[in-house]
Design a protein that fits this description.
Blueprint (H helix, E strand, L loop, with lengths): L23 E4 L5 E4 L2 E2 L5 H11 L6 E2 H9 L7 H15 L5 E4 L2 E4 L7 H17 L3 H12 L13 H27 L3 H14 L4 H13 L3 H18 L6 H11 L35 H12 L7 E6 L6 H11 L8 E5 L10 H11 L11 H12 L5 E7 L2 H4 L10 E6 L10 E4 L5 H12 L1 H5 L2 H10 L4 H13 L5 H11 L10 H13 L3 H10 L7 E2 H8 L3 H13 L4 E4 L2 E3 L2 H14 L4 H25 L22 H10 L1 H10 L6 H10 L2 H4 L4 H18 L2 H17 L3 H18 L2 H17 L3 H17 L3 H17 L3 H18 L2 H17 L3 H17 L3 H17 L3 H14 L5 H18 L3 H18 L3 H9 L1 H4 L1
Parallel strand pairs: 7-10, 7-11, 8-9, 9-10
Antiparallel strand pairs: 1-2, 2-3, 4-6, 5-6, 12-14, 13-14
Helix pairs in contact: 1-3, 4-5, 5-6, 6-7, 6-8, 7-8, 7-41, 8-9, 8-10, 9-10, 9-43, 11-12, 13-14, 16-18, 16-19, 18-20, 19-21, 21-25, 22-24, 22-25, 23-24, 23-26, 26-27, 26-29, 28-29, 28-31, 29-31, 29-32, 31-32, 32-33, 32-34, 33-34, 34-35, 34-36, 35-36, 36-37, 36-38, 37-38, 38-39, 38-40, ...
Length: 983
């Protein structure tokens, strides 16, 4: 692209001056500016900046005085134009380094390197992007284009006068728009269509006659599953072109409409037909095979033969079954490595965790597999059936081996099978999969004595075994010839050079008679791990037993210290010593986990060996105290002044404390799965109240949307447990938690009923906190359902209760909610005053998170009052806090409210952008009612920018949601869809 409209002539370019000119940088993609190092230089007068711009855009070529006069003033130069140019040049020379501004042949030239001007850098990046795209590397091309576009800082040559600057400004803006179109085209090629919709909506509003943008918007909407909106864009475009220009859409746009109408399958692909085919990622996920693999010759031959003939069969499925520790995984991995040459397109592997209580969900596994095969996240569907279908389509025509390890049952496996010729699957499980149609079943038994001794010898060393062959045979026999037990025994012996084989054999003979019960399912696993457990010292053995008691995927070091009642450093030393024994795994720095079978064994040891038995309950109680105290610390830091922490059950074990709320948030979200699993475990009578309080203190897990479904399930379990135990206090609090969750997801009838029950139970139990929060929740639900008088009654009651217990944060919450009731009933001034009262209280407490809720309420009231600038400012302040606090629900709703304010301020394009972002943020959270609200606002914004077809699609979807919910908002949307409204 040429800087001044003429051809570039490299030989005319003067060489850059060496020396300190390299310290200078110049910018024309925005205001014309110069820097020396990191310091900005004085900008000078507008004409001086115009002179600098004219010289910068000539690539070092000399500009005559006449050319510069034309550039600055055009056909009407002042009488002293030449003198003025010389004055500007003199001032410019003084500000730059010596030798940078040269005078020659009656004109001027800048002696700078290309990389000193932002425009040159942008051009170079755009050229590199074009090359990357031609080479098929679309992601690199996108990154380069984004970097190029990022060099712009507003309008090019901003505020620079003169006809030359005006011409160049228009040229650079057109180029910027072309780069943006190219980058958006690449976005669609790599599957980022959902993310592109918001930007394209704004661009089509700003450039309504630019057909390529319309075409990209249609394609982005179609690939996002919004076919009706895509067709509506075409209808809007055709109408606009006819009205403004009297022409039809270009052929490419019309062809795209027809392909959308025909549901062209190729159109749904994220890669355009002219683009190079996507690079298929070749996964190589097989775990390493053990170097000392031993025996199993007949099984290796049988399975290898099956896999080698997979190319000619529909699909080869072999399912290995046997007791835990029999070597299913080791055999399957070894065979898979042996057969890799038959599957040149890659190998997939997953541990399905079927032996534990939390088996892997097939849809999650499919998501991981699709990513490993190169499918972008944006193209991975949500449902199990859709993911399974896409997975089979992705494997079609390829030769992939899939190893499904530790499966629970056939139902878990079926969606993960390739189902196409040339692919194969190896499955391991503790159960025989007789109901897995077409599978080749292999029952794996323990090793023969000869194979078992060979494995033991390879690990321990031939020298030690040869001198004690009989003792070695005794060892493998005591292990029941179970490969895992043999491996553990041999490894322990190999690590202890002072032990003899006879010492190990004597230990097994004395204490491991349960190995005779190897065929009794899990008892075989316990007997296998008895070897490692028996070698632990007293402190290690106690830690091993107690750490396995708590539910959850893993355990942090601090939580483990609480279980063991030890200082942090002592606990770490103990846990690391267990890691060395392979009985415990280091999941990540500072986090530990058991293999699921080892956890079962550890619990069996605790039931058998922990004396007195009350120590087990004491260990879990300490962990519950630790979690509750730490969660209360997080809650107090996030919500200063909130009295909940003063009404929680007392704890006797300290938790962690935080000074930075981001650190507190990190802890809460990192521990989310462990916390919720442990709360579920603690639903029994002795720990029920603390479990309920822990769940309440972790309310951010629900309000953020991150763990809302699991949170709701645990809350329901606690409520049932409290009801069964007749504990009114615990039940009232569990009901408040449930009611809050249900109002957040739009299940208002359930939430209102639960809040009412909570209020009655709390009154009976004389528990003040649920008595405050229950009417608060009922009030906001009544607002959403249009029962304003009832809502005001409940919120007034809530306000009185909060004031009675001196809960200032709760008082502010009730005030802000009451503000919304007043707003809904037309009392705008009162609404503004109440919201401001709430904000004042929150700010006085230093409560930034709930202060954002107050600003949200104030923003609504100010919008309705017509004070749009201040409303937008309050809502933006709230948005910053919600994003920083990871409150996705509130982030999405604030974006929606900003869109409403934009509409009131006659900014429909910005409203459409904010509403689109709200839809994206609220995906999967907030419930269907809130989605209907956002769609209604988006429709109004689209209607405002002339995209009436898309608007009606949004409104129809919103109407469908409202009608399914029986919501009163359906009437408003019907009115928007009426012919009179459309006119």
């Amino acid at each position: 692209m040429e800087r001044d409209g003429g051809p570039r002539v490299p030989e005319q370019r003067a060489p850059a001056v060496p020396g300190d000119s390299g310290e200078l940088r110049f910018s024309v993609l925005g205001p014309v500016r110069a820097w020396r190092g990191g310091d900005p230089l004085p900008p000078g007068s507008p004409q001086q900046r115009a002179l600098l711009a004219a010289l910068l855009l000539r690539d070092g070529r000399t500009a005559t005085a006449g050319e510069l006069i034309d550039a600055l003033w055009g056909d009407e130069p002042p009488s002293q134009a030449l003198a003025a140019v010389r004055t500007y040049a003199s001032r410019l020379r003084k500000g730059l380094s010596p030798g940078v501004l040269a005078t020659e042949a009656g004109g001027y030239a800048l002696r700078t390197r290309p990389d000193q001007l932002d425009l040159n850098l942008a051009q170079e990046l755009a050229t590199d992007a074009e090359k990357a795209r031609a080479a098929g590397d679309r992601n690199q091309a996108r990154a380069l284009l984004n970097k190029s576009l990022g060099l712009w800082d507003g309008e090019a040559l901003a505020s620079v006068p003169g006809p030359y600057a005006e011409t160049q400004r228009a040229r650079l803006e057109e180029w910027r728009l072309q780069l943006t179109e190219t980058r958006l085209d690449l976005d669609l090629e790599v599957g980022c269509h959902a993310e592109a919709v918001s930007e394209l909506t704004v661009l089509t509003a700003a450039h309504p006659l630019r057909e390529l943008l319309r075409e990209l918007l249609m394609l982005a909407l179609y690939r996002s599953g919004r076919q009706a909106e895509a067709l509506a864009v075409y209808a809007d475009t055709r109408r606009l072109l006819a009205e403004e220009l009297g022409v039809d859409p270009r052929p490419e746009l019309a062809q795209l409409q027809q392909r959308i109408l025909q549901a062209d399958a190729e159109l749904a692909s994220p890669v355009e037909e002219h683009a190079p085919p996507p690079t298929f990622m070749r996964p190589a996920q097989l775990p390493a095979t053990v170097p000392d693999f031993t025996g199993r010759v007949s099984f290796v031959q049988e399975l290898s033969k099956r896999l080698s003939t997979a190319e000619g069969s529909v699909m080869a499925v072999s399912a290995l079954a046997g007791i835990g520790g029999v070597g299913k995984t080791t055999l399957a991995v070894h065979v898979a490595h042996t057969a890799r040459t038959y599957f040149p397109d890659g190998q997939l592997y997953v541990d399905l965790q079927g032996a534990g209580t939390r088996a892997a969900e097939p849809e999650n596994v499919l998501g991981s597999f699709l990513r490993a095969l190169g499918t972008p996240d944006a193209l991975i569907p949500d449902s199990l059936d859709e993911r399974s279908a896409l997975y089979r389509s992705t494997l079609d025509g390829r030769r992939i081996l899939v190893l499904l390890d530790n499966a629970r049952d056939a139902a878990q496996v079926r969606p993960l099978l390739p189902g196409t010729e040339g692919c194969a699957a190896l499955v391991t499980s503790r159960v025989r999969m007789v109901d897995l149609a077409g599978a080749h079943l292999v029952d794996l038994d323990v090793m023969s004595p000869e194979e078992a001794l060979q494995l033991f010898t390879r690990i321990v060393g031939e020298e030690r075994v040869t001198t004690e062959r009989k003792a070695a045979l005794d060892v493998v026999a005591a292990c029941g010839f179970l490969p895992l037990a043999i491996r553990i025994a041999a490894s322990r012996l190999a690590a202890r050079r002072t032990w003899t084989v006879s010492v190990l054999a004597a230990k097994l003979a004395d204490e491991r008679r349960r190995l005779d019960e190897l065929q009794a399912g899990d008892l075989a696993v316990k007997a296998t791990f008895e070897l490692g457990y028996g070698a632990l010292d007293r402190a290690q053995a106690r830690a091993f037993r107690l750490l396995g008691l708590a539910d959850g995927p893993d355990l942090s070091l601090a939580a483990a210290a609480a279980v063991l009642d030890l200082p942090l450093h002592d606990a770490e030393d103990l846990l690391e010593s267990l890691v060395d024994t392979s009985l415990l795994e280091s999941a990540a720095p500072g986090r530990y986990r058991y293999h699921d079978l080892v956890r079962l064994y550890a619990r069996a040891c605790a039931e058998r060996d922990e004396q007195p038995p009350s120590e087990r309950e004491a260990a879990l109680s300490r962990l519950l105290d630790f979690y509750l105290a730490t969660a209360a610390s997080v809650y107090a830091l996030e919500r200063p002044g909130d009295r909940l922490v003063d009404h929680l059950e007392p704890t006797s074990y300290q938790g962690l404390s935080f000074t930075d709320r981001h650190d507190a948030q990190d802890w809460l979200y990192a521990e989310a799965n462990c916390l919720l699993a442990f709360v579920r475990q603690c639903s029994g009578a002795p720990t029920l109240r603390r479990a309920v309080d822990l769940l309440w203190a972790c309310v951010d897990l629900a309000e953020s949307g991150a763990n809302s479904k699991q949170y709701e399930e645990v809350a329901a379990i606690l409520r049932e447990a409290a009801h069964a135990a007749g504990d009114q206090r615990a039940e009232a609090r569990a009901l408040v938690i449930l009611a809050n969750v249900h109002q957040m997801v739009g299940r208002f009838e359930e939430g209102d009923e639960e809040a009412g029950q909570a209020h009655r139970l709390a009154e009976a139990a004389q528990d003040p906190l649920p008595s405050c929060w229950a009417p608060n929740i009922r009030g906001i639900i009544a607002l959403f359902q249009g029962r304003h008088a009832e809502g005001e009654t409940n919120l007034t009651r809530s306000l009185e209760r909060f004031r009675a217990v001196q809960d200032r944060a709760g008082e502010a919450s009730a005030l802000c909610n009451l503000s919304r009731i007043r707003l809904a009933t037309g009392r705008t001034s009162s609404a503004i005053a109440l919201a401001q009262q709430g904000i004042d209280i929150y700010d006085g407490l230093g409560h930034s998170l709930r202060g954002a809720n107050g600003r949200y309420a104030l923003g609504l009231a100010l919008t309705q009052a017509g004070q749009l600038s201040e409303a937008s400012q309050r809502l933006h302040e709230a948005l910053v806090v919600f994003r920083d606090s990871r409150q996705r629900l509130w982030e999405g709703m604030t974006l929606c409210r900003l869109a409403e304010a934009d509409l009131e301020g006659h900014k429909p394009a910005q409203a459409a952008s904010n509403a689109e972002m709200a839809l994206t943020v609220l995906r999967g959270i907030g419930g269907e009612w809130r989605r209907g609200n956002v769609l209604t606002v988006l429709g109004r914004a689209l209607h405002g920018i002339g995209q009436t077809g898309r608007a009606q699609v949004c409104w129809r979807e919103a109407l469908s949601l409202y009608e399914a919910l029986g919501s009163a908002e359906a009437a408003e949307v019907r009115a928007l869809l009426s012919p009179a409204a459309a006119a």
